[in-house]
Model the fold of this input.
Amino acid sequence: MGLEFYTSRLADAVNWARKYSLFQYPFVTACCGMEFMALWGPKYDVARFGAEFPRFSPRQADLLVVVGTITERQGPVLRRVYEQMCEPKWTMAFGVCASTGGFYQNYSTMPGADQCIPIDVYIPGCPPRPEQVLDGLIMLQNKIQEGRGFVQLREKREHDALIAPGKLKVIT
Amino acid sequence: MSVRALERAKETLGDAVTGSHSYRGDETIVVDATRIVEVLSKLRSEVELDFLVDVTCTDYLGREPRFEMVYHLRSMAHGDRLRVKAPLEDPIDGTNPNIDTIVPLWVGANWLEREVYDLYGINFVGHPDLRRILMYEQFKGHPLRKDYPKEKRQPLVRREINEY
Done:
């Protein structure tokens, strides 16, 4: 025990706070948006998980929800929206179109939003039931708590590389 | 129901009409593609088919002539419709087939013809602004042609696997 004990406990506490205050940026492009609205309504009430607050600016959001089909032409836009978000940030592919392209196998549709941005949680369904989305949200919260999101893993990699033996001089 | 439009079109246009058929209220005339502006302006002024519903195209790969331009017209006064088809040869040298634009007749044809150009590669001679409308500028080829590969993607952006 020592300094590591306190920093790891601190990371746990911070991750606990993060997972219950997910500010969403809904990137709604298609019919899944209807089901996404149902999720916000009082019946399914995503507010119970602290993720009910949409920010219509990516700079203030930390969960990018890709709702609906992404076409090749939208790829640069989605990429730009993702890059504008402050870290740490997470992403969720809502529905099969955002996950794999779904039944659109043609010249115009991107086969999954993960072709241009990293995706943390994939939710299947056309469109998914709100229960499935809540399940995906809980999976994402577990991921955040354990530090397994794409951005968190990258931060950890960079941190580990920084404190690797020989990299950092310890002054005693 | 709209035999009126078909009959009047045939007597107005004369030898520009190369064929016609009528099936369960779907009236179609096939016309000479080189005289399409003359044909449509006559249909508009004399047969009173004054509303351009749609401009589209069909690719019959392996058939001669390969392409067929399709114009859907409707009469606001009489409420009947007529479909005008114009077969287009695919040039042997690989360039796009040409047909005259109808934007001077209906301004609304502007975007419809851009869409046909984008997806089928029909060149509309005299069009004021013939650019792609649905696909992006960098896109190569015309995706609704039957010889466009079904699985072919032309991505604008892809992420590196180890980027994040």
